[in-house]
Amino acid sequence: MAMSDTETAPEAQGEVTDGFHLLIDALKLNDINTIYNVPGIPITDLGRYAQAQGMRVISFRHEQHAGYAASVAGFLTKKPGVCMTVSAPGFLNGLTAVANATTNCWPMILISGSSEREIVDLAQGDYEEMDQLAIARPFCKAAYRLNHAEDIGIAIARAIRSAVSGRPGGVYLDIPGSMLGQVMDAAEGARTLVKVIDPAPRQTPTADAIERAIEVMKGAERPLIVLGKGAAYDQSDEVVRAFVEKTGYPFLPMSMAKGLLPDTHPQCAAAARSTVLKESDVVIMMGARINWLLSHGKGKQWGEPGSKRFVQIDISAEEMDSNVEIAAPLVGDVGSCARALLDGMDGHDIAPPVAWLEKVHAKAEANMEKMAGRLRNNNVPMDYHAALGVLKDIITDQPDTIVVNEGANTLDMARSIVNIHKPRHRIDVGTWGVMGIGMGAAIAASIETGNRVLAIEGDSAFGFCGMEVETICRYDLPICVVVFNNNGIYRGDGENWGGGSDPATTVFVKDARYDRMMEAFGGVGVRVETPDALKRAVLEALESGRPTLVNAAIDPAAGKESGNIGNLNPQSVVAQARYPQAKKN
Ligand code: OXT
Ligand code: ADP
Ligand code: MG
């Protein structure tokens, strides 16, 4: 409604604020200064105002990637990453990322605008109508709706604490559009804001629990430490390192814990994975769940049934005994538990037998030697090993570069070939093995750390999020994306088993020019066919800091079905008899 000349605008009275500005003030008060965003009704202006108020607002092309970016920001910073979306479809797009964040135990807050409550509740067909709060609940750690401007302070505080305390996770905050325009007296509004004090309190286990763990360690003949992404998240890097080194135990990093201690550390047992899992007798889990990635702690991979005793450090008490018996549960944060163990170890002989260390070392050396032989080849077309050998050397020389990695073969081979040297310098598909996290992760890593980012992407994985190269160019981020282009999912040489003219279900357009996508938005695109050309292109990208996409042609026949986890595919007895091609897989 137009205002007459005699009326005074509320702003001119100088004493009012509104829902938009209280929300921005509440986030800033809690040191949240970045929003990962996709604009639209009813939150377009909220993004504009946030930018005007000095926040960093990074607008994406699709909410899923804004959401993944927020969740990765949460992992990297221990503060909830914030994603902002429109109602119904935008909310649903962002919800995947909240669910993924919760699954990975990463703190994030999804703030979605929502439609008129009265209309939604009577199902009268509003613009983008959906009962978002009810839908969000099963997918996140906590979900709240904010109906009144005066509740913004407490709602943001509640969302932050829910996201980061205990086991971190995704939180949903529903913002009815009408709430944003609600007006309040400015001084009164300021008094409603809440600064969250000690949002994730440290938690130390009792002396008894520590003593119990030391007793288990004292009896160990073949001990092992497993480091998980919960330990990387905790940011107690020095204490963890001191603990690992004082024990002298071999350690096995889960994929996103790589670099917590360097992969080149003499105690690193990554290259002797099967040996240490099978033969160890005492296993100390530090911020790692005994889930599918560790075969649930059972089966052939873990040796004789009953041959292990577990010590488990986890912030979540319910994680204990989830899959196997835990002989010494330590419920607390990784840093406090490691510190208490370090102190408790004094005066006890927990040194591992030399024969065990020698065995692990010998196995790791043999595997690394075998691998080294495969990394320098000039096969045409390139295989994964040749391409990854180049990237391994580059990361060794430039260890501050953050590696993002997704795909199947591209993921599994990069994980074992490319050493990581610093904590939280590898971001990948996480607990769900989700494809499409790559560009969001790369953008968040760049925004949150300012470091160079190298994203090593399968061509399928890249396809889930490729449009975000425009976002990379728009914000001029120093990200080099290398697409391992083998023309398909797992392999590029699949056939249509029905013999028709449609392509196989797993193949893409051959020799697609992904490099031109980056060029379309003003970045650098390069197509390479040899390890030397790959090396030159990536070095130039990291040197210049310009957004770059290197389209690396990989042998379509080099990959395996599902990479290292082909055993998880269900088998059809009928297929073996009916389709001759099935035998190849
Ligand atoms: O000890 P042994 O002898 O056993 O040897 C081990 C180590 O000791 C050794 N090693 C080393 N040797 C030498 N030197 C060094 N440095 C070294 N380090 C280790 O190597 C071996 C193996 O070690 P590793 O890797 O540690 O051990 P392993 O046994 O593999 O570990 C087991 C796991 C389970 C922990 C590990 O495999 C793991 O972490 N796996 C994660 C797997 C995963 O999550 N995969 C992604 C999902 S696959 C599939 O679902 C895909 N989809 C479907 C889809 C998805 N996911 N999402 C959505 C939204 N929609 C659909 C799709 C579409 S993948 C995919 C696309 C794939 O195509 P792309 O084109 O993107 O990719 P390409 O395959 O390249 O074409
Ligand atoms: P990985 O996939 O690397 O094995 P997971 O995601 O399975 O790791 O496990 C991470 C575990 O870390 C979760 O069980 C989570 O509760 C726990 N965790 C998260 N943050 C902390 C922390 N600060 N201290 C201790 N444990 C934590
Ligand atoms: Mg591929």
Q: Report the sheet-strand fraction.
A: 15-25%
Annotation, overall tally of beta strands = 19
Beginning-to-end CA distance, first to last residue: 67 Å
Alpha-beta content class: alpha/beta
- The rounded Rg comes to 26 Å
Helix content: 25-40%
Count of individual helical segments: 24
Largest sheet data: 6 strands, parallel
Strands across the major sheet, in which order? 3-2-4-5-7-6
**Approximate shape:** globular
What's the mean pLDDT score? 96
Cofactors and ligands present? ligand OXT, adenosine-5'-diphosphate, magnesium ion
Please supply descriptive tags for the structure shown above:
24 helices; six-stranded parallel sheet; alpha/beta; binds ligand OXT; single chain; 585 residues; 19 strands; binds magnesium ion; binds adenosine-5'-diphosphate
Write up this protein:
40% of the residues lie in helices and 16% in strands. It is built from 24 helices and 19 strands. The longest helix has 22 residues, at 354-375. The site of ligand OXT has 36 residues, from helix 14, helix 16, helix 18 and helix 20.
Overview in brief:
The protein is 40% helix and 16% strand.
Topology of this structure?
Elements: H1 10-13, E1 16-18, H2 19-29, E2 34-37, H3 44-52, E3 56-59, H4 63-77, E4 81-85, H5 88-104, E5 108-114, H6 117-121, H7 132-136, E6 142-145, H8 152-164, E7 170-176, H9 177-180, E8 183-185, H10 186-192, H11 207-218, E9 223-227, H12 229-234, H13 237-247, E10 251-253, H14 273-279, E11 282-286, E12 309-314, E13 328-331, H15 334-345, H16 354-375, H17 384-397, E14 402-406, H18 409-417, E15 426-427, H19 438-449, E16 453-458, H20 459-463, H21 469-474, E17 479-485, H22 514-520, E18 524-528, H23 531-544, E19 548-553, H24 573-578
Parallel strand pairs: 2-3, 2-4, 4-5, 5-7, 6-7, 9-10, 9-11, 11-12, 12-13, 14-15, 14-16, 16-17, 17-19, 18-19
Antiparallel strand pairs: 1-8
Bound molecules: ligand OXT, adenosine-5'-diphosphate (ADP) and magnesium ion (MG).
